[in-house]
Specification:
Layout: E1 4-9, H1 15-24, E2 28-33, E3 44-49, E4 75-78, H2 80-87, E5 92-106, E6 123-135, E7 140-144, E8 153-156, E9 161-164, H3 176-187, H4 196-211, E10 215-220, H5 224-237, E11 241-247, H6 255-265, E12 270-274, H7 276-283, H8 289-309, E13 314-318, H9 323-326, E14 356-358, H10 366-375, H11 380-383, H12 403-422, E15 431-445, E16 448-461, E17 469-470, H13 475-488, E18 492-497
Parallel strand pairs: 1-2, 1-3, 3-4, 4-9, 10-11, 10-13, 11-12, 13-14, 16-18
Antiparallel strand pairs: 5-6, 7-8, 8-9, 15-16, 16-17
Helix pairs in contact: 4-5, 4-10, 5-10, 7-8, 12-13
Bound molecules: xanthosine-5'-monophosphate.
Xanthosine-5'-monophosphate (XMP) binds at residues 293, 341, 343, 387, 389-391, 395, 431, 465, 502, 506-508.
């Protein structure tokens, strides 16, 4: 990739957002931790320094060597990046009297035609910092100020080095994307050619070249990533791609057959493997959520291993890994991050894992995977599908799992999800599902007293699942759904709606 931007990450919560904005401009970019500046900078046409939770004045402040970059490649420092370029080049960064958070107006724009091209004087920008640049570095000229921050933007004369104290990547910096475009296109001369169609074309060609006539195995989950990865590979190598779609008995109602039919309709070479009994037998009597996950992970690997042996001479294992899974993160605390839930548990190394790995979506963000999917003509329903956890309904049945409980929850879930679709609410929700609680409650049906199960409906808004809020679904919808569940699903006499945000709650109940 010769038309590339490097984003050096100093640990800011907004680093991925910078990358997303750059990609939205149809320009390719990569994120690297500040302490891993690539040796070979020849592929990069511009560099952006991110913000950071550190202060440049602290002893452990990130301090990479930029001698191969500054003055040689167009460089933009954002927030910490701007302070870094000032502090280590003869300027002065000091604590500001007040922490400067939130909106400000950028005024007195001057001294550069290209960087602030078509930017309005007084435009709103977003600040989030507690240090301030009191004295500019050597060779710097001021480009703009705000009410509280005199040196809000500067550049170094004789270099394509720019620095801004505000965050152009956040939504509240109204013209932030245009500022990034000015820097990347007008100053660094990058081409806006990173489009889904271009990605498909170059990736398919690269996959053909890499894989040749070898056979590839891929596990489909029904989700967006594995589906897009499969269709891309299919375009490159056709029937040499062998897809395996496993029914773990914990999918949504009719999901296995429906999705299998869709995959076959797309022309994929897919084998459906119904291993429900193997999973449900292994889960019998287990209530602990982490144990459930481990068992499901292990049985999945066993089933997949058995199936992969049936594909003779397979050389490659394809995976739908996406960019947020592979970005190396900068540890702000210095320690490893806590494991909240064990999503992947691999014991030993099964044979299929000894294959070469191919990950065609490894450089894409989720929204880009969807755009690539659309360019491959995958239908909107599949691309807009809510996330669904790998262990499926197992982590939505609190307590032990039985076939009867799975059947009850499948019915409840289907009424809820189909209802969301019928009411035009499905696409307004990021994820939705139902949980079966391990408690019975008293009810009355006709003249009879009942003592039956309680289910929870949960619908959340989110962008990445890291934080989430419950969705304010219309009362009329909740009322109809609740009635329908209690009338149609034997064994359930109570429906509740979960109104907790994440944090402190999580999206799933286990
Ligand atoms: P939580 O419950 O942690 O969920 O707020 C965040 C997102 O992750 C999904 N999730 C899982 N996905 N295996 C998965 O593949 C798991 O064990 C698992 N646990 C939670 C959850 O559905 C939500 O989208």
């Amino acid at each position: 990739m010769q038309n590339n931007v490097l984003i050096l990450d100093f640990g800011s919560q907004y680093t991925q957002l910078i990358a997303r904005r750059v990609r939205e401009l149809n320009i390719f970019c990569e994120i690297k931790p500040y302490n891993k500046v690539p040796q070979d900078m020849s592929v990069y046409k511009a560099v952006i320094l991110s913000g950071s939770p550190f202060s440049v004045r602290s002893e452990d402040a990130p301090h990479p060597d930029l001698s191969q970059i500054k003055g040689k490649i167009p460089l933009l420092g954002v927030c910490y990046g701007a302070q870094y370029l000032a502090h280590f080049h003869g300027g002065l960064v000091a604590p500001s009297n007040t922490r400067e958070y939130g909106r400000a107006r950028l005024t007195n724009i001057k001294n550069d035609e290209r960087f602030f091209y078509e930017i309005t004087d007084g435009t709103q920008v977003w600040m989030s910092h507690s240090d301030t640049i009191q004295k500019l570095p050597e060779g710097a000229v001021i480009m703009a100020s705000t009410g509280d921050v005199e040196n809000a933007a500067y550049r170094i004369e004789g270099e394509d080095t720019y620095a801004i104290q505000f965050h152009p990547e956040v939504y509240h910096t109204t013209q932030g994307k245009l500022i990034l475009e000015n820097f990347l296109v007008h100053i660094a001369g990058l081409k806006q050619s990173w489009t889904p169609d271009a990605f498909v074309e170059t990736t398919v060609a690269a996959l053909k070249e890499k894989i040749g006539d070898d056979k590839v195995i891929l596990g489909l989950s029904g989700g967006v990533d594995s589906t897009v990865a499969a269709v891309l590979l299919h375009k490159a190598i056709g029937k040499h791609l062998h897809c395996i779609f496993v029914n773990n008995g914990l999918l949504r109602k009719n999901e296995f057959q429906d999705v299998l039919d869709q995959y076959q309709h797309m022309g994929l070479n897919v084998k459906g493997v119904d291993a429900s009994a193997r999973f449900l037998d292994a889960l019998a009597g287990v209530s602990d959520p982490e144990k459930k996950r481990k068992i499901i992970g292990k049985v999945f690997i066993d089933v997949f291993d058995d199936e992969s042996h049936l594909v003779e001479d397979a050389k490659w294992l394809a995976q739908g890994t996406i960019y947020p899974d592979v970005i190396e993160s900068v540890s702000v605390t210095g320690g490893p991050s806590a494991t909240i839930k064990s999503h992947h548990n691999v014991g030993g190394l099964p044979d299929f894992m000894k294959l070469n790995v191919v990950e065609p979506l490894k450089m894409l963000f989720k929204d880009e995977v969807r755009r690539v999917g659309a360019s491959l003509h995958i239908d909107d329903e599949r691309l807009g599908r809510h996330p669904f956890p790998g262990p499926g309904l197992a982590i939505r049945i609190l307590g032990d799992i039985t076939r009867e409980k799975v059947a009850i929850l499948q019915e409840v879930d289907a009424i809820f999800i189909n209802g969301l679709r019928e009411w035009g609410l499905y696409d307004k929700v990021w994820q939705a599902g139902a949980m079966l609680l391990p408690v019975n409650s008293v009810g009355v049906m006709g003249d009879e007293r009942t003592y039956e199960k309680c289910v929870v409906l949960r619908a959340v808004e989110s962008t990445d699942g890291m934080t989430a809020d419950w969705v304010d679904l219309p009362y009329a919808f909740l009322q109809k759904t609740s009635n329908s569940i209690i009338n149609k699903v034997p064994g359930v006499n109570r429906v509740v709606y979960d109104i907790s945000s994440k944090p402190p709650a999580t999206i799933e109940w286990e």
